[in-house]
């Protein structure tokens, strides 16, 4: 039985520790929590008790090394703020632990190099939790492309929409500061760029990008005639009628994890999406050439009326068209199965000289289109050998973020960026 410790006990951590102490109690043991916030760790332990599990020891962030010495975990699960992932990954590897990390693996080339060097130095293992790979429709896309259903893939058009529920949420919390998250082209698009790498079985060569903050932020709101502003929703009269406001005191889990925990670190989870201090983009376009020769055109919009994606592949023998509509979602620290839950999906194969064929895809239960349960079983259960090779390594994690990192550089410099010049793997 493997032993696991979790560093970072926010909303995403619940996904892991709930599964560890319930579905995988026979194969996995949770031994500790680590966080910079004592109140949040206490809440995590209270959830363990609700699940019928005893509380586990808690350690403040500065005691990370001591946690490993005293509880002796085999693996560390990293669900902290993105810019600190590398610190915990590298230290865990140096102390003899393997690592499971939330995406993105890290946010820039220097931090990525630290992780790659630590893996080489220690021989340890890092896995990145790309749950979208495991969604049945995304696996089916991989099957179709790898079988040659449309021949050689020459171009891909990929459009991802985040709606005014899920998309807005990145502009309320720590993600709004690019120094924390690398912006949405790293934090969110790492999912999408990883899917392209996975589907094409290739990786990026050159990247060019454009992006702006066009909807969120105070200046954009002023241009649309907004006159009532606030810094955070809690305690604000102006936030009462704002459909973009997040009211922490109206959600038991958000209140316990964030509002009640403010006394520890003064982190405000409910900042105004139309306030100052936002340094990430909400409207982005990227073009990528892959080692395979395929060219990707990609767009990400964080204020769309619906949530989901459209992706089209043009090949030497036909075209594959996909549309997936997802349910609205806000990370409230609970009801994790709602994230990425599907409303509809369509996969249409158009052979070069044949009639279109709608592809049947089995429905999977759980979040991220049915990918979450399969990912968890692959991480913690007795999963059989995966014929689709969906488990993502540190190399996969690096290649997915390098597209976004190169895109950020391209937006800064206004030119084409060679990925190998950013970080050669």
Question: How would you summarize what this structure contains?
Answer:
InterPro entries: Gfo/Idh/MocA-like_OxRdtase_C, Gfo/Idh/MocA-like_OxRdtase_N, Gfo/Idh/MocA_Oxidoreductases, NAD(P)-bd_dom_sf. Residues 3-130 form the Gfo/Idh/MocA-like oxidoreductase N-terminal domain. The chain has helices at 11-21, 38-50, 64-71, 85-94, 109-122, 136-146, 166-169, 178-181, 184-187, 189-200, 218-223, 252-259, 262-265, 367-380, 394-413, 419-422; strands spanning 2-7, 28-35, 58-60, 75-78, 98-101, 126-128, 153-163, 204-212, 283-290, 295-304, 307-315, 318-326, 342-351, 357-358, 392-393, 417-418.
Question: Any overview of this molecule?
Answer:
The chain is α/β, with parallel strands linked by helices and about 425 residues long. The protein folds into two domains: about 130 residues, Rossmann fold (3-Layer(aba) Sandwich), CATH 3.40.50; about 210 residues, 2-Layer Sandwich (Dihydrodipicolinate Reductase, domain 2). The chain is about 35% helix and about 25% strand. The strands form two sheets. The protein has a nine-stranded mixed sheet with strand order 14-13-12-11-7-10-9-8-16. Helix 10 packs across helix 15. About 0% of the residues have low confidence.
Distance between the termini: 34 Å
- Which structural category do the helix and sheet elements fall into? alpha/beta
In the sheet with the most strands, the strands line up as: 14-13-12-11-7-10-9-8-16
Classify the helix fraction into a percent range.
25-40%
The tally of structural domains comes to: 2
> Low-confidence runs (pLDDT<50, min 5 residues)?
332-337
Number of helices: 16
The averaged pLDDT comes out at 95
- Net shape: globular
CATH architecture of the largest domain: 2-Layer Sandwich
What is the CA-based Rg, rounded? 21 Å
* CATH superfamily descriptor of the largest domain: Dihydrodipicolinate Reductase, domain 2
Largest sheet: 9 strands, mixed
The CATH topology of the largest domain is given as: Dihydrodipicolinate Reductase, domain 2
CATH class of the largest domain: Alpha Beta
* Proportion of residues in extended strands: 15-25%
E-strand count: 16
Domain Gfo/Idh/MocA-like oxidoreductase N-terminal: 3-130
Domain Gfo/Idh/MocA-like oxidoreductase C-terminal: 143-418
InterPro entries: Gfo/Idh/MocA-like_OxRdtase_C, Gfo/Idh/MocA-like_OxRdtase_N, Gfo/Idh/MocA_Oxidoreductases, NAD(P)-bd_dom_sf
Protein name: NAD(P)-binding protein
């Amino acid at each position: 039985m493997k032993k696991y410790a979790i560093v970072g006990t926010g909303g995403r951590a619940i996904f892991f520790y709930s599964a560890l102490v319930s579905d995988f109690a026979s194969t996995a043991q949770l031994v500790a929590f680590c966080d910079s916030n004592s109140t949040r760790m206490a809440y995590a332990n209270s959830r363990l008790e609700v699940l019928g599990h005893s509380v586990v020891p808690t350690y403040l962030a500065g005691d990370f090394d001591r946690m490993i010495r005293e509880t002796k975990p085999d693996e560390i699960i990293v669900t902290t703020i993105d810019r600190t992932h590398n610190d915990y990954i590298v230290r865990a590897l140096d102390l003899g632990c393997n690592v499971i990390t939330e995406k993105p693996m890290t946010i820039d080339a220097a931090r990525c190099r630290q992780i790659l060097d630590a893996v080489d130095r220690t021989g340890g293992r890092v896995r990145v939790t790309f749950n979208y790979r495991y969604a049945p429709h995304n696996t089916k896309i991989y099957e179709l492309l790898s079988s040659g259903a449309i021949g050689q893939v020459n171009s891909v058009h990929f459009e991802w929409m985040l709606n005014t529920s899920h998309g807005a949420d990145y502009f309320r919390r720590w993600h709004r500061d690019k120094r924390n998250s690398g912006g949405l082209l790293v934090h969110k698009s790492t999912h999408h760029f990883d899917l392209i790498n996975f589907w094409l079985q290739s990786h990026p060569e050159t990247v060019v990008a454009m992006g702006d903050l066009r909807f969120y932020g105070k200046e954009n709101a002023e241009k649309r005639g907004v006159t009532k502003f606030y810094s955070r929703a809690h305690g604000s009269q102006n936030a009462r009628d704002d459909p973009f406001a997040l009211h922490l005191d109206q959600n038991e889990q958000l209140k316990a994890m964030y509002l009640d925990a403010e006394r520890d670190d003064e982190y405000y989870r409910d900042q105004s999406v139309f306030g100052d201090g936002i340094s990430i983009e909400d409207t982005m376009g990227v073009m990528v050439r892959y080692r395979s020769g395929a060219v990707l055109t990609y767009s990400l919009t964080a204020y769309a009326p619906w949530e989901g994606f459209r992706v089209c592949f043009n090949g030497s023998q036909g075209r594959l068209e996909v549309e997936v509509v997802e349910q609205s979602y806000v990370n409230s620290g609970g009801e994790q199965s709602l994230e990425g839950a599907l409303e509809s999906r369509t996969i249409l194969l158009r052979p070069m000289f044949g009639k279109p064929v709608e592809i049947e895809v089995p429905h999977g239960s759980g979040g991220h289109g049915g990918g979450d349960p399969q990912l968890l079983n692959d991480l913690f259960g007795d999963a059989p050998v995966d014929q689709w090779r969906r488990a993502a390594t540190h190399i996969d994690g690096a290649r997915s973020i390098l597209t976004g990192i190169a895109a950020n550089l391209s937006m800064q410099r206004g030119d084409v960026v060679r990925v190998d010049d950013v970080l050669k793997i």
